[in-house]
Amino acid sequence: MSFRARHLLGIEHLAPDEIRSVLDLAERYVDLNRRTVKSSDALEGMTQINMFFENSTRTQASFELAGKRLGADVMNMSVAQSSVKKGETLIDTALTLNAMHPDLLVVRHPNSGAVNLLASKVNCAVLNAGDGKHEHPTQALLDALTIRRAKGRIQRLTVAICGDIAHSRVARSNLILLGKMENRVRLIGPPTLMPSGVAEFGCEVFDDMREGLKGADVVMMLRLQKERMDGGFIPSEREYYHRYGLDGEKLSVAAPDAIVMHPGPMNRGVEIDGELADDINRSVIQDQVEMGVAVRMACMDLLARNLRAERGAKAAETMV
Ligand code: CP
Question: What range(s) does the Aspartate/ornithine carbamoyltransferase carbamoyl-P binding domain occupy (predicted)?
Answer without folding.
Answer: 6-148
